[in-house]
Amino acid sequence: MQACSLFSVACSGFWRRGRGNRFRGLSRTAQERLPVRPEDAGIFDELNLHAEAGQIEPAQKIFRKLQATTHAEGGLHRMVWNTMLKAHANAGDVPGARALFEAMKTHSVTPNRQTFGKLMEAAAKAGDVRGAEAWFSGRSDTASIWRGRTSVPFAILLDACAKAGDLQRSELWLQKMCEAEVAPSVHCYSALISCCATIGSPPDAEYWFSRMLHGGVSPTVIAYNAVLDSFAQVGDERGAAKWQQRIHEAGLEPTECSYSSIITAAVRNRNQVAAVNALEEMLSKTLQPSLVCFNGVIHSCSKNEEAEKWLRKLRESNLQPDEVTFTSLIHSAKRSPKQAARWLRSMISEGLKPSVECYTAVIDSCAGRGDLSQAAEWLKEMLETKIRADAKAYNSVINAAAKASQADEAIFWLEQMRSSSVLPTEVSYTAVVDSCVKEGKSSLASKYFQRMADEGLTPDMVAFTTLISGFLRKGEFAEAEERLTLAKSLGLVPDATCYNAFLAAWARRGDLPKATELLEQMQREEVTPDLVSYNTMLKSCSKAGDVPSAIRWLKEISKASLSPDVISWNCAIGACAASKPIESAKAEEFFRQFAASGLKPDGLLLRTLTSAVGPKTRRWLCEELEEHWSGKERFGPFWSGESNHLRLTHTHTQV
């Protein structure tokens, strides 16, 4: 997002004048040369005001009124036509500008530089480089218009290139300008630097800024802002700050555009503090922040309360929130479905039309909190309001159904997606497969996995792992290994998550040798085991009561530069408790190592320790090692009570 356009400051017209009735007090001779009758001077000024703002509809009403009053006197003056043309130019309305030009010819109005300048500006504002070039050099009736060494048409062309982000053509037109012995103005260089900002190329922006200095052209704050914005577009806060400092060093004052770019850089880095600081500095300097500035800060807010505070300040600045504002507010409330829904309702009540992104954000918020029914209701409302839902909206509901283990609901929304001519993605099918797996429907999971491939979609390793997990949960090892082989044949590389599914299956069976063999295979295939992998091995040891293997895998965790967590130590102590006979001394040693690591015991670990050493030993062990924990309040009930007083405060889910 480019902070500020150069169209409002560069090449914006040849004859723009001050506002108000400019024709009062003129002599009779001067009044005879007016573009309108003296009594219509005020109306003409109103036309010019609408033209400056690019307000085509009200400008057309006044233009037609002037046409009606001057029809009997030979038609409108060329200046009036050019003023109407300016409205189309400032709105970037290329078709409207062209139609008005053809009407000028029909009324035998001879175009001049201003006419073609406005036609070029219309194309430039729309980013239509070829169209601007055509008005400059592609017509026979423009051949004599641009005689003389003026930089204005070149500046307009450079503006068009900046809007389109076409640096190559920008440089070409600057070269042609020099070949025509026309000295580039500061507007020309600013437009070229702005093009560098559009494509996010700070090195090119700095290069052309230095070329401007070497050419003896004094940069304005607009040129500085263009370089600053180039850094903002790539999220380079340090570079943006450096160029803001250079503005000060040049004896210039940063403008609203300067701060807007600083905010853009901060937002791209998710740096809420920097974005807020920039906006507060603007307000302290009595600069009027634009809606873009406020929207950037609201977008950066991670908490809805903060976003709401800046919405109030936006309104206090006599600005009105737009679609972007409410979209950012909805995103800030992603952890609160009710709040996100409230912002969507507020948006509608203020006469704004929610976009697909707005509804999808609310749906995603509900889905993220596991509220499948609300997510589905919002998707239904979205469809009822004739807003075409995209794949992301459907996928949010399908994912919510998968998390809730509701395969039928996931399949229903997949079919709705297809019937609405929205193509399902790999994410859609993977979520459906996951929902089937969670319900233990491995055959149904296989069906939708195959449909994904039949529709030309390529399953990724996540999809394969999801299906493999389904087979392994039902003990169908042959089918799981067959899918793993297929994944490898497609060039996919199984990751730790995939192998962990196999490890967990062997662990559930208590088959420690098979699990050990698989982990060693992972290492041979250069798949780095993670802590979940090692904890799964320790779980196998715990079930088998294999203390030596538990010691081995604790050492392997350290060798892998990982640190055992509460689950690791719980499994190791569990191996001691399941050993025949119980290895109480080793369990005590494990617990001492656990305490020395700085971890805090939870109810599950203390229960396991009790099984290994007995309640009395557990009690004095905890009292002895109390210094390793920040306080006794949280664990006191476990330390002093008997085993029947144990309360489970935390649970850890193992793979």
From TrEMBL:
<feature type="repeat" description="PPR">
    <location>
        <begin position="185"/>
        <end position="219"/>
    </location>
</feature>
<feature type="repeat" description="PPR">
    <location>
        <begin position="220"/>
        <end position="254"/>
    </location>
</feature>
<feature type="repeat" description="PPR">
    <location>
        <begin position="355"/>
        <end position="389"/>
    </location>
</feature>
<feature type="repeat" description="PPR">
    <location>
        <begin position="460"/>
        <end position="494"/>
    </location>
</feature>
<feature type="repeat" description="PPR">
    <location>
        <begin position="77"/>
        <end position="111"/>
    </location>
</feature>
<dbReference type="Pfam" id="PF17177">
    <property type="entry name" value="PPR_long"/>
</dbReference>
<dbReference type="Pfam" id="PF13812">
    <property type="entry name" value="PPR_3"/>
</dbReference>
<dbReference type="Pfam" id="PF13041">
    <property type="entry name" value="PPR_2"/>
</dbReference>
<feature type="domain" description="PROP1-like PPR">
    <location>
        <begin position="338"/>
        <end position="442"/>
    </location>
</feature>
<dbReference type="Pfam" id="PF01535">
    <property type="entry name" value="PPR"/>
</dbReference>
<feature type="repeat" description="PPR">
    <location>
        <begin position="150"/>
        <end position="184"/>
    </location>
</feature>
<dbReference type="InterPro" id="IPR002885">
    <property type="entry name" value="PPR_rpt"/>
</dbReference>
<feature type="repeat" description="PPR">
    <location>
        <begin position="390"/>
        <end position="424"/>
    </location>
</feature>
<feature type="repeat" description="PPR">
    <location>
        <begin position="425"/>
        <end position="459"/>
    </location>
</feature>
<protein>
    <recommendedName>
        <fullName>PROP1-like PPR domain-containing protein</fullName>
    </recommendedName>
</protein>
<feature type="repeat" description="PPR">
    <location>
        <begin position="565"/>
        <end position="601"/>
    </location>
</feature>
<dbReference type="InterPro" id="IPR033443">
    <property type="entry name" value="PROP1-like_PPR_dom"/>
</dbReference>
<feature type="repeat" description="PPR">
    <location>
        <begin position="495"/>
        <end position="529"/>
    </location>
</feature>
<feature type="repeat" description="PPR">
    <location>
        <begin position="530"/>
        <end position="564"/>
    </location>
</feature>
<dbReference type="InterPro" id="IPR011990">
    <property type="entry name" value="TPR-like_helical_dom_sf"/>
</dbReference>
<keyword id="KW-0677">Repeat</keyword>
